[in-house]
TrEMBL record:
Keyword terms of this UniProt record: Membrane, Transmembrane, Transmembrane helix
UniProt keyword Transmembrane helix, yes or no: yes
Superkingdom, natural source: Bacteria
Transmembrane annotation, as ranges: 48-66
Species of origin: Saccharopolyspora phatthalungensis
InterPro entries according to UniProt: FbpC_C (IPR041230), Quino_amine_DH_bsu (IPR011044)
Domain FbpC C-terminal regulatory nucleotide binding: 126-177
Annotated Pfam families: FbpC_C_terminal (PF17845)
Protein name: FbpC C-terminal regulatory nucleotide binding domain-containing protein
SUPFAM superfamilies: YVTN repeat-like/Quinoprotein amine dehydrogenase
Amino acid sequence: MKDGNRTREVDLLRTQLHRLVEDVEPRPDALPRLLANARQRRSPWRPLLAVAGAAAVAAAAFVVAMPRLPGQQAPEPVSVRPDSYLAAPEPGVITSFDVLSGRQNQAVARVNGADTKVLATDGDRVYTLVSTAAGRRVVEVTLGGGQQVLPGNVGDGRLLAAGGGRIAYLDGNDVVVVHAMQQQTPQQRIAIPPELRVNDLALAGDGRLAVLAGRHDSRRSLVLLLAPDANSLAGHVEAVPEASCGPVAIAWSGRDVAALQPVDCGGEQARVATYAADSGRKIGAGVPFRTPPLTAVGTRLSTDSLGRFLVSSDGRGQWLVDGSAIRPIPPACTTGGVCTPGPSTFWS
């Protein structure tokens, strides 16, 4: 074999190995052995077999090396993320379910007195509401089993949102935003005009707030988009859907906001549209899919780390929206046949 050809073959194999395992190197003698075998025969299939063999050797090296990577955390159970969602099929029991099969995985936490219809997630933390002698409070649950009751009474227990280390809820006509990780930080209170009803809240990872609101005498709603440190509606951006009814639920999807809305007010179809948070302009119409009539009360939209949406309603069905692929998924029911009365939510 000529030196030029040998050099090209070495470079090709080394590139393939690094693409397969990134920073994990194969055994020191793997490449010379493969090249020696490749030089023994001139079959046109030999380079492909050599690459496949290199991949196998590299994969073996990767598997052996993984337990010895410094500072690596223990892997999360596959039943927790990313292919699972949370629901509360029994009072106070927050449970993980497999997205595609609906199979019950495990109980994540037991919270005495928790409202099974109100759940919010922020990374590996779960939030729910409990009734105490001092009033309705937010409880934070970690995957390690820790729980803490956060200060502050929650006036309206219908809505709870979490994101970016903050939580948001309703208190009368005000939306209250609290730093869950920095409880000494003053809370934000955004007054909502009394002629508007608030149907949903969503917090982005950078603290931006989305409020789904509409007039009491109308089925139409719009999305109010506020800056992370807003204390009023001044300077907010509006996303206004064209339909004369809905949306019924909202969620952040990266830097954009997503809205679950009916295709038309009298039909049984919905779509998840997306809007640019900086302008309110629609940037994605969403693929229509068949649903029963959905209402703001009892319907939740959430997104996971893969950019998929979970549309969940209380007793009306659940759907996984993955781009243009729409898939109905089973209800969240335990192995004992107890099904969740309220909507479910993805890990955020």
